[in-house]
Every structure is written in structure tokens, then in C-alpha cells.
Amino acid sequence: MKYGIAEFLTLIGSLGIFLYGMKLMSESLQKVAGDKMRSILAAMTSNRVKGIFTGFLITAIIQSSSATTVMVVSFVNAGLLSLAESIGVIMGANIGTTVTAWLISILGFKVHMSSIAIPLIGLGFPLLFSKNTKRKSWGELIIGFSLLFIGLGYLKESVPDIKSNPELLHFLGNYTDLGYISLLIFLAVGTLLTVIIQSSSATMALTLVLCYNGIISFEMAAAMVLGENIGTTITANLAATVANVSAKRAARAHFIFNVFGVIWILILFYPVIKFINRIVIESGSPSPLTDASSIPVALSLFHTSFNVMNTFIMVWFVELIEKIVIKMVPDKDSDEEFRLKYINTGMVSTSELGILQARKEIYVYGERVTKMFGFVKELSNTQKEKKFEKLFKKIEKYEEISDRMEVEIADYLAKISEGELSKSGSLKIRGMFEIIDNIESIGDSCTNLAKALVLKRENKVEFPDDISKNISDMYALIDKALDEMLNNLNKDYAEVDITKAYEIENEINSFRNKLREEHIKNIKAKKYKYKTGIFYNEIFSSCEKLGDYVINVSESIRDSQI
Residues 320, 354: one domain? Predict the structure, then answer.
């Protein structure tokens, strides 16, 4: 049998069907699960065992450890998971990815799944036309599952037949009897393939097919599997390149975990292979060292054993991994640490203690939107393009965190309110709901100000010195208002006096009125261009609106008093 371009393209096409099926199945499963998957991942990580189980469960369901680890990186980026919690989930994801190998070993080679895959597509196809989003997602899920096994069937057939290609066997033979060097070569091949394909599950499927067709031996296939475990960390690291420091650390932790596992298993490689070989023989199957038909199951057993043992060993070193990645990725900007500090969304303390924890968390929330306004001021005075873009992205990131924090704190307050509360406790809870709503609005106002500054820059509008000074003076008043807001948030609400907050609010309103009157006169006198006036008016008006939300926070504190 000749193996030319057409046959090679058939192989690539088969792999494409397999990958597309996996992608479709993964995405549709996430759509079917909706926010439940996110809430499960956020809630079930209160300890290492729960984190590992969560990572295993989600990866087993969506059939992609890469998808899980990318999701984990995004949650760390959003502040929903701490670094230590994320490491546990990643460990579980590594075990979960072994389910793919077992599915292929048990179903893919023993049962002709392609014979039932077409009828399954027939079942799922009509659902694609449903107006109901969930039903449509179920249709995509069924079709994705079917395509995955159709691709696997074609993949098995399109791999060159070793019996008809002895020269290929001779070529591979040059690299299979070099001891540990052979292992390192095939480990590198497994890593490279996974980096290219961006899916360890797909590379595992390809490895199983190569074994099943007798192209590579069990030992070399096992080395490729180890390489796939390193290659799969690349996806998370790529996802973390545009994320914050914590997310980068989570991705590095994944890399360290897998690389360390590969190192110790390489040291014990041949004893482990013999152990797996003995288990397979004792189960009644022929030796995978001599019979290619036993390799898929033996390789799945090796893959699972490796990940389970590695997790069992590394789970005791989470703090050490955490310290290593913190040194690897130093925190150049401490403002990038985004997560709840005082409350745990998965657990609720006693009602009165819960109120105290919520009050502390709300103060942190106020601090973060205050920092956000600081970035807006910096954005106003930034001339360099790269720095301007970086600051705007940071403001957008803070806005996302602000939205998420509001939801998390509100959920916690709702749980507290279900318990026994005194009259004062009930008033405080009601006030806290209003406070976080107004703090979130402060964050939105900061984002609107930043967007106005972006449009001003895009339209090449330059403010005269007197306008720049007026805006700077308005910013200074907003700073005073925010400082007073934080001062009030940091006190026992019963002791708060908002007289000073009102004085600052009146200053802001008076200054806004003065600027508006001057602005109308200057527009009539054509002192500056109309376009310049539009952006000027937008900025000082947005600042005054922001000030309204700031005073609303102090008013909500006052209203929570008896």
C-alpha cells in the first residue's frame, strides 16, 4: 500500500473529525449545564479533596482537561478561586482526562461505534432546528459524541498499515532500542503533538490507534502519554498570557505538577511498566509487551495509575507548589489580586458573624472601586499608547470583578438573611444590599468615564489647560468623596455620621453647576470646538453622577441604623 498525500490528508481529516466532535461535545455540554457548571466549580473547592473531585468530575463530563484548566485559569483571573484551590482542581482534571482513554479502549476498539454513530446523528439532527436553546444544545451534544467516534473509526483505518509498510517499521526501529533516549524521544513527540493539536485527549486517541495497529510498542506509547501530560499544560499557559498574575500562577502550577510527575515516573519507568504488564496478564489478557491488542487497555491503565499516583503524592505539596509559582511569577502589581477575602461563598457562618464578615468584604469592595477611579485619573494623563491600552484593559478587568463581587456578596447576604436575625441585623442586611448596588454603580461610572476618554483619544481631541485643570479639580473632589465613603464603610455602621459626606457632595454639585454654566458660555463664545465641549461635558457630568452613587453608599449606611 502506498502512502501518499491523499492518504495523509485522510489521516488529518480523520483527526479533524475527531477533534471537531470533541470540541462540539465539550461546548454543547457546557451550554446544557449553563451556569451550574460554573457554580459547581466555584463552590466545590473548599478543601483539596473536594477540589480534586470537582476537577475529575468536570473533565470526565466535558472530556477535555484543557477546557477545565482554561476554565480554572479564568476563575482564578476573576477571583473566584484562590491559587491553592485551583491546584486541587487541576490535579483532579488530570485524573479526569484518563476517562477518554478508557472510553476509546473499551468502546472504540471493541464495539463498532461508527455503526450506531450515524443513527445517533439522525436522532440529534432534528434537535438542531429547535427554537429551545437547551434542546438545540442537546442535539449538538449527540452529534459531537457521534462525530468523535466516527473520527476515531476513520483514524484507525487511515493510519498506514505496518504490514504493507516494512520500511516504516524499520524507520521507527531506529529510535525504539536506545533505552532512555528512546523514551525521551517519544516523550518529546507526545509533547509536540499535544501542543500542535491542543488536546491531550486527541493525542491519546492517536497514540492508542498507533498501538492498536502495531506501529509503536507499549513502552514507547507510555512515553508518548507522559509527553502528552506536559503538552496539555501549554493550553492553560496560553490562556493565562493575557490574564492576571494569579491566573499565570495557576497555569504554572499545572506545568510544575505535570513535569514533576513525569520526572519521577521516568525514574521508575520500567518497574511500573512491568507492574502494569503483570496486572494485564493476571486479568486474563495477553501481555501488552508482545500482543498489540492488549496495549489500549494497558495504556489506559498506565495513564490512570500515573495520574492517580502523581495526585496522591503532589496533594501534600500544594503549599510548596504555591510558593514556587509565586517566585516564578512575581506580583509586580498587587492590585491584580482579585478575590473575596473575608467570606466563603460555599459556607455561611452564624448570622451575626456573617454580617461582620460581609461588612469587611464590602469595605474591600469599596477599596477596589476607589482604586478603579485612580486608574481613570491616570488614564486622563497618559500619553503613551501602550500604557493607555494597558490601563483601559485594567479598568475593564476591574469592572468585571466589580460585577462578580456584587453577585457573590449579594448571594452571601441572601444566605445570611435565611437565618435567625435581630431587627438591627435585618436593617443592616437591607442596607448592605443597597450599598453593594451603589458600589457596583460606582464601578460602572468609572468604566463610562474610561470609555469617554478612549473616544476622546480616538477623535484626537485635546483639552486646553483651563479645561484640564477643571477636570483635575473635579477628580480631587471625587477623591475626597471616595475617601469619606471608605471611612464610613470601615466603621461600625451604628457609629457613622454622614454630615461630612453631604458637605463633599454639595461641593461636587456646586462645582458641576459652575462648570456647566461656564461651558455653555464658552460654547456660545466659540472658545473651543463643539466636539471638545461634548467630551468635556460628558466627563464632568459623569463625575457628578459618580458622586451621587458615593453619597448613596453613606446614606444606605445611615438607613441601616436603628
Answer: no
Q: Which of 328, 358, 379 is the last residue of a domain?
A: 328
Looking at the structure, tell me whether residues 344 and 323 fall in a common domain.
no
Within-domain flag for 42? yes
Pair 320, 346 in one domain: no
Of 192, 229, 198, nearest in space to 16 by CA:
198
Indicate whether 296 and 192 sit together in one domain: yes
**How far out from the chain centre does Cα 550 lie?**
32
In a domain, 167, yes or no: yes
| Range of the structural domain that residue 366 is part of | 340-559
Domain annotation covers residue 131: yes
> Burial of 495 by CB count in 10 Å (0-12 exposed, 13-18 middle, 19+ buried)?
exposed
Task: Judge contact between 468 and 535, C-beta under 8 A.
Answer: no
pLDDT digits (tens, 9 = 90+) for 342-394: 675 444 445 666 787 788 889 999 999 999 999 999 999 888 888 999 899 88
Give DSSP secondary structure letters for 152-211: HHHHHHHSPPTTT-HHHHHHHHTTTSSTHHHHHHHHHHHHHHHHHHT-HHHHHHHHHHHH
Per-residue model confidence (pLDDT) at position 469: 92
* Residue where a domain stops, chosen among 328, 351, 378: 328
Q: Which residues of 116-152 are buried (b: 16+ CB within 10 A; e: fewer)?
A: ebeebbeebeebeeeeeeeebbbbbbbbbbbbbbbbb
**Quick check: pTM over 0.85?**
no
Give how far Cα 511 sits from Cα of 472, 504, 530, 546, 547, Å. Answer: 12, 11, 21, 14, 12
Do 255 and 237 meet the contact criterion of CB atoms below 8 Å apart? yes
Contact criterion met (CB below 8 Å) for 542 and 445 = yes
Residues, the chain: 562
Cα gap 475→368, rounded to integer Å: 17
Residues 152 and 66 in one domain: yes
Sequence-distant (≥ 6) Cβ neighbours of residue 328 within 8 angstroms: 249, 252
What is the number of alpha carbons within 13 Å of residue 347 lying toward its C-beta?
A: 11
Q: Which three cell numbers stand for residue 418?
A: 435565611
Q: How many Cβ atoms sit within 10 Å of the Cβ of residue 156?
A: 19
What element of type H or E holds 518?
A: helix 499-524
Least confident of 355-359, 376-380, 511-515, 538-542: 355-359
User: What CA–CA distances, in Å, run from 411 to 21, 416, 420?
Assistant: 37, 9, 17
Q: Looking at the structure, do residues 312 and 348 belong to the same domain, yes or no?
A: no
Q: What is the spatial distance between Cα 86 and Cα 93, in angstroms, rounded to a whole number?
A: 10
Q: How confident is the model at residue 450 (pLDDT cuts 50, 70, 90)?
A: very high
Q: Which residues contact 8 (CB under 8 A, 6 or more apart)?
A: none
Cell numbers 516504516: residue = 168
> What's the number of domains the chain is made of?
2
Cβ distance 85 to 42 under 8 Å?
no
- 455 and 420 within one domain: yes
What is the CATH number for 397? 1.20.58.220
The whole-angstrom separation of Cα 464 and Cα 470 is 10
Residue 449 grid coordinates: 468615564
Residues 195 and 318 in one domain: yes
Asked, for residue 333, whether it belongs to a domain, the answer is no
